[in-house]
Amino acid sequence: MASPFDQESDHRIYTPTKSFRFSGLLRKELREILRDRRTVITLILMPLLVYPLLGLMLQKFFLNQVTHLSEIEYRIVLANDSEGQLFRALFTQGEKLLSAQEKPEQKNSETSTAEDTPAEDTLAAFKQIKPVVKIMIADETGEDQSILTLLREGVVDVGIRYMPIEIAQKHAQEKQPSGRFQLIYGSDSGHSRRAAEYVEKRLQAVRWNYRDRLLTELGESETVPFQTSMYTVESEMEQTTSLVTIVPLILILMTMTGAVYPAIDLTAGERERGTLETLMAAPLPRMWILSAKFIAVLVVAIMTAMVNMTAMLATAYANGLETVLFGEGLTLFVLLEILLLLVIFAAFFSAVLLCITSFARSFKEAQAYLIPLMLISMAPGILGMVPDLKMTPLWAVIPLANIVLLSRDFLLHDAQPLLFFVSVFSTLFYGIVALSLAARIFGTDTILYQTETSWSDFFKRSRKTHLAPALNNAMLCLAVMFPVFILSAAFVSRLREMSISLRLLVSGSLTFCLFLLIPLLFARLGGVKLKTGFRWFRPGIFSCLGAILLGFTLWPFAYEIEIFALSDARIESLSQLFESLKLELAAVPLWIKLVSLAVLPAVCEELFFRGYLLSALLNRYSSLWAILASSFLFAVFHVIVRDSLFIERFFPSFFMGLCLGYVNVLAHSVIPGILLHMIHNGLLITIASYQDSLSQWEINLENQKHLPLFWLGGSLLMVIGGFLLIRFSQRRKPVSATDP
Amino acid sequence: MILVKDLTRIFEAGNQDVLAVDHVSFEVDPGEVYGLLGPNGAGKTTTLRMILGLLKPTSGDAEVEGYLVSSHPDEIKRRVGLVSTSAGLYQWLTPREILSFFADVYGVHPLQAEDRIEMLSRLFNITSFLDRRTATLSTGQKQRVNLARSLIHNPPVMLMDEPTRGLDVVGSKVIFDYIDLLRDEGKAVIVSTHRLDEAEQLCDRFGLLHFGKKSYEGTLAELQQCTSCQTLTQIFLQLLDAPRESVETMPTAQEELF
Fold this sequence. Notes:
The complex is a heterodimer.
Chain A: H1 22-35, H2 37-69, E1 73-78, H3 81-109, H4 118-128, E2 132-137, H5 143-152, E3 158-167, E4 176-185, H6 190-217, H7 237-240, H8 246-273, H9 275-280, H10 286-319, H11 322-326, H12 332-359, H13 363-383, H14 393-396, H15 401-411, H16 417-441, H17 445-449, H18 471-494, H19 500-525, H20 530-533, H21 541-553, H22 555-565, H23 568-586, H24 590-620, H25 623-639, E5 640-641, E6 644-645, H26 650-667, H27 671-689, H28 691-694, H29 709-732
Parallel strand pairs in A: 1-2, 1-3
Antiparallel strand pairs in A: 3-4, 5-6
Helix pairs in contact in A: 1-10, 2-8, 2-10, 3-6, 8-10, 8-12, 8-13, 8-15, 10-12, 12-13, 12-15, 12-16, 13-15, 18-19, 18-24, 19-24, 21-27, 21-29, 22-26, 24-25, 24-27, 25-26, 26-27
Chain B: E1 2-13, E2 16-28, E3 33-37, H1 44-52, E4 59-64, E5 67-68, H2 73-79, E6 80-84, H3 95-105, H4 110-123, H5 139-150, E7 157-161, H6 169-184, E8 188-193, H7 196-202, E9 205-210, E10 213-218, H8 220-227, H9 232-241, H10 244-247
Parallel strand pairs in B: 3-8, 3-9, 6-7, 7-8
Antiparallel strand pairs in B: 1-2, 1-4, 4-5, 9-10
Helix pairs in contact in B: 3-4, 5-6
């Protein structure tokens, strides 16, 4: 054997600097995934097969409709032969009269139909179809019964009864036979109704012709009071009937399918094949490995989207279905816009996929996780197909639904720039969150080696006690609380028949359960020591005094921030809302309002946001980032009120979150924050209750006026004083983080 | 060259703490082949993974060429090659692509990488299938590609985790030659195995792990002297028969979590 080390150069040929190339890593991932037969199948074969087949089916469907239309048959039944003869004579006469009227009109319209597209041909064909009328005679016995029975059974479309009337005519010498035709049709059948209208039109023509002739004979033809004529314009309603929303949905679903396989293969698959360990043993940052995988998945997803879009367009053009599928407004720019949306969506979805597949230890496990995800993802996408669904800010923040609706609006040239940005940024934001979660999970030693951990371990109690909750414990707690919070908010809004006092109490106790019991459960599971985990330390007396001072003086700023965030229109709609609430609230005893809106929320929210969550965040991040993150989450929870979103509540809540967080960190305890929060809320409620007497001080919440400047100045001084007091308290008692 | 100091790893499995490695310390010099022996679940693989920085030790540290794994994991990874039977190959790439990818990842200069691939493929006799997709290769061929891969950055330290598991006589022979070669080149090698016959042939010194604890350490002669047994197998059986308490005091470490 020759020696591998017989080089002249330094025996250690690696370079100690981080000079390896990320592109090398990316190239390997792309090579591996793009050469994979399964990727090629979803990427190229699927669209190549699916779309032509779909196109064929759609075209068949339309052709079928046309051939079906050309064979329209109206079956008409009459009681007996003589009536049948009478009807037939009148009907033929009406037919002639109508066709004589239509002929000159047709000549005019012929020139314009020359350059119609196939889809319009279909509509034109639909209009020009001449129904075949079949006149039948019912069974002689029990004529009434049999006509109705035949109609009910759907054997005929229209039943006609004739009731002769003998009228002594003034002008005529002899008695002239007259009568009434009764047209009977099935109320549930459109075809039957159209048949009845068809017959009625012909009979009417005869009747009018007779009347016109009489009038002419009498020399009164010029006295017809008015005439009508018809004129058509293109209506916008027609467009919503096209399949415009289906296009983005199909594209999104195909993009999703394109991304699924690479995501599983490059994470769980690589782990299963034993190549991930070799990669982790190389001097590569974990984030680089994950990023390369993310880009590879993204590239495949985008390629799938592009191939699908091309195949779809080609099929649509080949079959002449582009107006049906894409609506009227298809331009290259719109296509690029939709492609951009697909890229953004692909980035988001790839990140979510990687997050989930990084957790999985095998291909099968990853598939098991992804199937529910795919099903869940279908829901907002299909919701987007609801006709006439308007894109709103709420829809813009719902992943998948926002992209479907936005693509539809692009196709209809109806997209709003603001909602476009909201959708794009929210989608990207979710993507970043998912990717950062994936980075935490991907390649950690527990995932790499510990085959025994499972989801059930999340529900087992930790045997070690910890002073502060782990960040993933707190985040999981938050993830459980958020949907429960939304559900409970919706639940309270359904209790309309209850008195408002009772509703307030229910909502208060729900707050208690949500913000206290759930974190307590997680603290127990995570083995977190309650006193330290919820930052329940004895505060300094000056800290409490400072917090009380802040509780009385912070509200003007929160109030000003809220007004600043409100638009005039919003103020109006809010004051209307406020008006209706005011009467209801006035009847509630003050103590109920104070307990349910001030005391309970203050205690529970502080213990969770500034207790459990903040101590988990402080465990990992600096005070500044911990306070910012907890305030952000605090504000997000406050945006949801009952079953609607109040975006403007975000800013004052964020501001209060920052102040409360700072007080908490300064005082090393949750208790001053509780006092501050309680007084702040209580004060606002009391002010609202005694508003009439306050209005003389130029505070008018209903009209949302700005506060007088001297109020703000005075409050600012007090606020500074409050914070200084708390700081001062800590200086004097530096080791305050001891048990009470 | 390699210095392992009090390495300890506790796995949390459900409600139980499993002590996989219990204060293991040893040293390996350049040009020495150290055999890490023990039954299944003794903590061999876990120890190797901690040395390489793939697993975080619960306590203790490992040092390679003066770098601590706790503070300079990347420096360690650059200096260590890993051969493991569980390691796979990228099935859609060719051996040449795999080798040049790892050369790139370890920061080998592209020009040098080409020479090195050339030389390693001659050495391990993989030239004939260097441009075939690895999915089409036989187990023996894949094994040789993996050995070449572990040497692409010419590391001074080689960790081998059960390198002969699942191999036939020819495959094992390749490994034996490979280890001899590493020794000749002055590399520090740790081989983990439960095949005692092989270990006797391969290793200069042994460390016997049982329930995560190092029970014996020394050359074969030293071990023979201290246990009055002739072969490694006898020494091993004696160790296994010993009452558990004398080996260690922790709760059951039934199976290494792998």
